[in-house]
Amino acid sequence: MLTIATGNKAVAAAVKAAKPGVVAAYPITPQTEIVEQIAEYVTDGDLESQYIPVESEHSAMAACIGASAGGVRTFTATSSHGLLYMHEMVHWAAGARLPIVMANVNRALGPGWNTWAEHSDAFSQRDTGWLQVFVGTVQEAYDATLMAFKIAEDERVLLPVMVNLDGFALSHIMQALETVDLGDFLPPYHLPHAIDTENPCVYGPMTGPADYFRFRWDIERSMRDARGVIAEVEREFAERFGRSYGPTEDYRCEDADVVVIAMGTLGKEAEVAVDRLRDEGIKAGSMRLRWFRPFPDLDLAGREVVVIDRDYSFGFGGVVAHSIRSKTGVVPYSVIAGLGGQEVTYNDIADFVRNRHPGTETWFGVSDHV
Amino acid sequence: MPGTECLRYVLKAAGPDSVLVVPACCTSVIQGIYPGTAMNVPVYNIAFAAAAACASGMSNAFCALGKETNVIVYAGDGGTVDIGIQALSGAFERGTNFLYICYDNEAYGNTGMQRSGSTPLGARTTTTPGGKPTGKKDLDRIVEAHNPPYMATACSAYPLDLYKKVKKALSIEGPKFIHILAPCPPGWRYPTEKTVEMGKLAVKTGTWILYEREYGKLTISGPSKAAMKRPAPLSDYINGQGRFKNLSPEVMDEMRQQVERNIQRLSREEAGVC
Amino acid sequence: MYEIRIHSRGGQGGVTAAKLLALAAFRDGKYATACPFYGAERRGAPVVSFVRIDDEPIKIYSQIHEPDLVIVLDTSIMDVVDVLQGLKSGGTVLLNSAHPLPGCNGTCRHVDLTGIALAENLVVAGSPILNTPVLGALAKMGVVTFPSAEKAIREMFADERNVKAAKAAYEELKA
């Protein structure tokens, strides 16, 4: 059905279609609309699910862990400080190999209080063992949330998935949304190690170094296998519903001399900048990085690269720029922009490309090349 | 360890269709090291602050699946009165169908006896080497404020009383709470063979009162009925424990007054005198 | 692409007006996005919302700096906000006002949305509802068609007085 919705409502609609057994969540701006909508679905009988209005995000993830291990599909949503507050349990969920799906509405971190978009919240969880995907449109928020359940629950993966959408910029914008009739796209929830009193097991007991180390390797092995599973699920989604996705969304990249790499809504805005630059005769392309964990293999040979980071690792650099550099060997022009919802337009992005200095870093509007 | 002995009775009462949710505590250790286990029911280990929330999710999952499995949190005093109290409060306020059992040895025993909110006045721990300057947090009155359908106190020295209370708790729908006093030989510094005696002295002196509260209505349990009428001298309980060595007369006096106030409060309530 | 900036005060329905407009454009078969610019969410504070309408999918998420149309739901804002900032040459201004703006040239339109809302008794929590009547005015201006405006209003609100108010604004807006 074709309708118009915000990014938050699109996520909630996908959750309704996925029919989780338990949703445990705590409200936080700009995510609140997701949990409000889900609570309404449950109250109105549109979603037969146990909605647990927990007293904190730490408890939200703990409840999801208990529910997922208990044998039902599980969802939560959070943002910013909420994500940081649940950090301990974010690690636990991955270590316990539970296919929980969480929407994270990307928002800056205090102080000062700032509710606008930034990717630092998600990146602070990058080493937890969660898969992370970043979306750029309302439609993609819906599609990625649906696919997240299928990817997470695949027995070759069995790791949780975080679907990231930019606070306000995407969570609150209204765009077209086509909801789908899911059919049997999502198989019934099956967790091989679900709690079973007929076959009592102890979960997460004291574990010696040798076994513990093997468990960590198992997480990484599944993370590597996840690349193939993601590709399979995205292919199946395209065949069934006609919308295709990949590790990146490439726009006019085939013959591009210079490629802009950004994530989320800035990655879509970059496509408009590319059109402007092409009109000027600059052979530019845009590569919007969708999957952050597992980090995709990128082919950037022979191109100049401009990376826009909506995040920063203090004392080190832009997280995406340095990831690109370490994974591909390409030395990008690193632009730090959009922190705390800083306004970045397609004209600004075109300027980043025009004024690029590979090997240097610029804080947009604040510092020159350093 | 009394906490372990109590667990035997809890599980005997609960039966095989039960799951234990265990935060960091002594019970994390006594299960055995992976891949071995000493337990005959599923045990879900979870982070320190998260037991009640994890159980909350599990209880709701079982509800969604139409299962009647008992979800039982088995947590120490640190994981209950301190770091876990927010999750506990939330789960009780939401009416979660589960049983929360706190086995209380009045300190962080698993990490070598540091003070917890449940450590009593005057007790020496590794972080209160001069004796704890403040009293024990009254967890039961905090839980009571959530109006649970069932709550009770118990003590490891009275296993049959505990068994019956677990049975009764699990027959009731909603959030249930049992608070077990579990004397700890190394932490309280007394010989291990005196563990049962120590628990009985806690009850006989009126320091620990056994009772049940069903939908708010208080019933004092058998062993405490006599003790409250004619409590044994507090020094019988205190003097046998190294943690209370060299208490000042003032602190001793304050402890005595606390015990008396507590006995009076509960006696009056049971008698219907406000 | 047609870009619209809506000025209002928190609680006056500017954000809902943007959503309604996007929905109506969408029902016209166009691509549309509606995007409020959220600051501190306080009643009475000046707020601004953006609507983009195009025949192609819209990839722009940044604010509208050079609007084709500026809508002012509360003219008292004009004392504190430069509502004309960045207005394209040949752009249009639509004011919620019974009177034309002094000195405004031919691109300035006005209609008494508050009066229309009060006449229909469209008042919530003491404030007249402006977001549904304004859609009627926008239909008159050709930003969306009236049938789509009507459809959008009915999708979001059950109260038929909203449609009546939109009709009234459609009729009252001077050509």
Poorly predicted segments of chain C: none
Report strand % of chain C: 15-25%
CATH H level, superfamily name of chain B = Thiamin diphosphate (ThDP)-binding fold, Pyr/PP domains
User: Can you summarize the main beta sheet of chain B?
Assistant: 8 strands, mixed
Uncertain spans of chain B? none
Rg of chain B, rounded, reads 18 Å
**CATH architectural group of chain B:** 3-Layer(aba) Sandwich
| Annotation, overall tally of beta strands of chain C | 8
For the termini of chain B, the CA-CA separation is 39 Å
Let me know the average pLDDT of chain B: 96
The CATH superfamily name of chain C is: Pyruvate-ferredoxin oxidoreductase, PFOR, domain III
What does this structure look like?
The complex is a heterotrimer of chains A (about 375), B (about 270) and C (about 180). Helix content of chain A is about 40%, strand content about 20%. In chain A, β6 (about 130-135), α7 (about 140-155) and β7 (about 160-165) form a beta-alpha-beta unit. Chain A has two domains: about 1-180 and about 205-240, Rossmann fold, CATH 3.40.50; about 250-365, Rossmann fold, CATH 3.40.50. The radius of gyration of chain A is 20 Å and the shape is globular. Chain A has about 375 residues and is an alpha/beta fold. Chain A has a seven-stranded mixed sheet, with helices on both faces. In chain A, strands 10-12-11-14-15-16 form a six-stranded mixed sheet, with helices on both faces. In chain A, strands 1-8 form a two-stranded antiparallel ribbon. Chain B is of the alpha/beta class and about 270 residues long. Chain B has a single domain, classed as Rossmann fold (3-Layer(aba) Sandwich). Chain B is about 40% helix and about 15% strand. Chain B is built from twelve helices and eight strands. Chain B has helices at about 1-15, 25-30, 50-65, 80, 85-95, 140-145, 160-170, 185-190, 195-205, 220-230, 235-240, 250-270, and strands at about 20, 45, 70-75, 100-105, 150-155, 175-180, 210-215, 215-220. In chain B, strands 2-1-3-4-6-5-7-8 form an eight-stranded mixed sheet, with helices on both faces. In chain B, β1 (about 20), α2 and β2 form a beta-alpha-beta unit. In chain B, α3 runs parallel beside α5 (about 85-95). Chain C has one domain (about 1-170): 3-Layer(aba) Sandwich (Pyruvate-ferredoxin Oxidoreductase, domain 3), CATH 3.40.920. Chain C starts with a strand and ends with a helix. In chain C, β2 (about 30-35) and β3 form a beta hairpin. By secondary structure, chain C is an alpha/beta fold. Chain C has five helices and eight strands, in the order βαβββββαββααα. The chains are: A alpha/beta (about 375), B alpha/beta (about 270), C alpha/beta (about 180). Chains in contact: A-B, A-C.
